[in-house]
Amino acid sequence: MKIQIYKHKVQYYETDQMGVVHHSNYIRWFEEARLDFLTQIGLEYAEMEREDCLSPVVSISCNYKNSTKFGDTVYIYTKLTKFNGIKYTVTYKIVDAVSKEIRATGESNHCFVNKEGKLLSLKKEQRKYYDMLVSAVDNEIEEIA
């Protein structure tokens, strides 16, 4: 599986008085989709944490294309595009489930650290996670979805 599709129905609390999704929620949706992606490849984040393997966000960006409103359903196409054993990049495309319009695109960059904040090389210290991510990376140039 190279691209994971995550479905999200917009909730009232995610919107402003005009029923438009607040921009900060797109970043939250990226996180939901990313964690779902990791679960789908067999990598449970809670288990990683118990094994002293954390994955903080190093940077994140979002490009807003069209408004999403209360009641809309969107699909978040999630793709792991880079992984070097220590750092990885995930790209996202949020698409309206009905109109197929792109609502937003984005990218997040992460690394792996232990609870003391020291960088981890998964290849050396968590080989099973390394293998899961290597098999899921898709660095082809084509657009998501």
CATH fold name, please? Thiol Ester Dehydrase, Chain A
Largest sheet: 5 strands, antiparallel
Sheet-strand content, in percent, reads 25-35%
Helix proportion range:
25-40%
What is the general shape?
A: elongated
Beta strand count = 5
CATH superfamily: Hotdog Thioesterase
Q: Total domains, how many?
A: 1
Highest CATH level, the class:
Alpha Beta
Q: Indicate the CATH architecture.
A: Roll
Features:
5-stranded antiparallel beta sheet, alpha+beta, Thiol Ester Dehydrase, Chain A
Give a brief description.
The chain has 4 helices and 5 strands, in the order E-H-H-E-E-E-E-H-H.
What does this 3D model show about the protein?
This protein is an alpha+beta fold. Strands 1-3-4-5-2 form a five-stranded antiparallel beta sheet. The protein has one domain (3-136): Thiol Ester Dehydrase, Chain A, CATH 3.10.129.10. Strand 4 and strand 5 (102-111) form a beta hairpin. Residues 141-145 have low confidence and may be disordered. It is elongated. It is built from four helices and five strands; from the N terminus they run E-H-H-E-E-E-E-H-H.
Describe how the helices and strands are arranged.
Elements: E1 3-9, H1 24-40, H2 45-50, E2 57-64, E3 73-83, E4 87-96, E5 102-111, H3 122-125, H4 127-136
Antiparallel strand pairs: 1-3, 2-5, 3-4, 4-5
